[in-house]
């Protein structure tokens, strides 16, 4: 499961959450819900539907703000068992794809258009930027 946010008034606002169940990708967008919490609860409800009954669900890379946001919502709405080692969550390295994380804000959540400028991407080369499709 992965959570995407934009920054407004120095706060991280979730605008998208998604997960992969081994066969299908499920994505949820804030524009389809009244609040970020409602969007996240719906994503968890889908993840925990009967088809997943009897399975354990593991989350990775929750030590940053994703973990703080998701843990608060989980604790308020679901029964949760956490997996920790020596008082810390297990650390699994994750490599995210190329995405203009600095571009997203509340006014362009449904943006369709040319690729954003290079300045909106983090840690990519000009060659990587040029390889991105322009639509």
Automatic annotation (TrEMBL):
Q: Could you give a GO molecular-function term held by this entry?
A: nucleic acid binding
Reading the lineage from the top rank, the first entry is: Eukaryota
Q: What is this protein called?
A: Uncharacterized protein
Organism field: Smittium megazygosporum
